[in-house]
Amino acid sequence: MASLVYGKDGRLLFTKEMKAEYTILMPQMLPVHFGMFRQLLVLEGYKVDMLETNHRGIVDEGLKYVHNDTCYPALLVIGQLIDAIKHGGYDPHKVALFITQTGGGCRASNYIHLLRKALEKAELSFIPVISVNLSGLEKNPGFSLTLPLIRKMIYAMLYGDLIVNAANQVRPYELSPGDADRLVDVWQGRLIDGFQAGKGMDRKQLRENFDAILADFAAVPVSQEEKVRVGVVGEIYVKFSPLGNNDLESFLLSEGAEPVVPGLTDFIIFKIFNREVDVDIYGGPWVKKKVCQIFKHYIEACQKDMIAALEKTRFRAPSTFEEMHQLVHGYLGDGNKMGEGWLLTGEMLELIHSGVPNIVCTQPFGCLPNHIVGKGMIRKLKDDYPYSNIVAIDYDPGATKINQENRIKLMLANAKALAKKEQAREPVGAGI
Predict the structure, then answer these.
(1) Helix (H, G, I), strand (E, B) or coil at 350
(2) What is the pTM for the complete model shown?
(3) Residue range 16-144, CATH number
(4) For residue range 145-165, what is the model confidence (pLDDT) as tens digits?
């Protein structure tokens, strides 16, 4: 059994011996993306389980060890991890926990300290916590993000965004229910097999895979029925996680809507761009800015490949990061970068400009940055775009699912009424 080793700062380290013996538990935020991330880590020799649990006990565990005024995503992530340790059949002396840190001032950097405090309170402080970050915040001798692994994860992120984008445009209209979900599973497996075989590690293969994925989704028989499209934005965890948003996408589908969910890539580019902004505003080494610019340019170039692939098909394509950045000028400055910062407002503007004025803004109750750049910007957007139809939904331990869904139903009813008015205004023969 691996012995416990502590760093100079008193932090319990994840050692090389633990890599061979321990199972690492990682929370799930995006089912498709994180599923591929997990497989990539397994290929690197780590034993990793992605937690897919979704039940009230997770909230209850979180409430035991996290103050109920703390950010709801923190409560859920910590509750899910502790619930897995207690009830998931794991040997608590042979598990480690993954948690991401972005290096910013919001929850994504501070969860790790809340998690360690919760483990101590639960008498589980002997469990190591691994920080997954690109900022050099914490290092562990048994875990490292190598450049080849980072590159694979970037590709997996782009594949995930493309698959989710295409699946969301097929699933509401498929003539044989389950076709889109089947293709999601098939392509996840193919892509991981490709990574394992050493394929898919260049831009040429990336573009070929984009085309092949879209060709398969385009071949799914679909109806020509028109449905209301609903954008989903907000705090990153409750925007993406079925656990965090009470399976919002499934609910929208059940109500006859098409979910439109901006991908993860823009958020990652946004976080890298913020490092450039830090140097511009506060000063710092030009080398740091240059490295960030090179990294950002590479991901943006790959994102443009994805957009180009979508534009060749019947599927709608998102705008580039820079195009979204231009849209937000006049609303928020680059220094507004706490949490989702100006990106959240930018996503709402992108959705409105792309013909999706119906938007659900998901936010943890009490999340100050989100309330400013999300709910706080709705009136301004409504003034500039009177036809926009945006509802802000709070998620927290005390919020009832039925109340959240009733508010969304009201927004959908308004969307359908507006759609009927638009159809009534169209001249005879329009679109022929």
Answers:
(1) helix
(2) 0.93
(3) 3.40.50
(4) 899 999 999 999 999 999 999
